[in-house]
Specification:
mainly alpha; 52% helix
């Protein structure tokens, strides 16, 4: 099984039934000709902040924009060299706020 087959199976069988929308990477590439509203700022951008911001606003419609921006900054500031620590920190943000 190739990585592409595995990825496509996960997208089709797990993520789509949960309501996730798949966006093909080149469709949001940081290239001048790409016009997608969720276009990356750079190839180094791991967290797609435009999508994150839109979804935080969608699921928290009564939260002030200032608080949404603080939450995004907090998420983007997870920068430990220890990836396990980063994952645990992000998980704690999701669970405990």
């Amino acid at each position: 099984m190739t990585e592409q087959i595995l990825e496509n199976n996960i997208i089709k069988e797990i993520l789509k039934p949960l309501g996730y929308k798949h966006i093909y990477g080149p469709d949001i590439a940081p290239e001048p000709e790409v016009t997608h509203p969720y276009k990356r700022d750079s190839y180094d951008q791991v967290i797609l902040t435009k999508i994150l911001r839109a979804k935080l606003i969608e699921i928290n419609p009564d939260v002030k924009e200032e608080l949404i921006e603080q939450a995004i900054k907090k998420i983007l500031d997870i920068t430990s060299p220890d990836q396990t620590h980063n994952n645990e920190t992000f998980h704690n943000y999701l669970v405990d706020g």
